[in-house]
Amino acid sequence: MKFQDTGLGTTNRQQPISTKYPPEVDRVLRKMSDKSDFIRKAVIKELIAQGKLDEDWQGES
User: Fold this and answer.
1) Where is the composition biased (Polar residues) (predicted)?
2) Which of 27, 32, 41, 48 maximizes the CB count within 10 A of its CB?
3) 42-60 residue pLDDT tens
4) Would you say residue 18 lies in a domain?
5) What is the distance between the terminal CA atoms of the chain, rounded to a whole angstrom?
């Protein structure tokens, strides 16, 4: 897989955060074409639900 030089996270040079998943979750995620976006949205949603991120958070501008 070739990495692109455009897209989310390419301008601020943040280190990626990686994580392992249980086998069944891993299988489902690997079948998704938009897995990074899905995981990103799920994490943000949970951070808001736990009160660790403001509900009106809009992301990078």
Assistant:
1) 7-18
2) 48
3) 999 999 999 999 999 887 6
4) no
5) 28
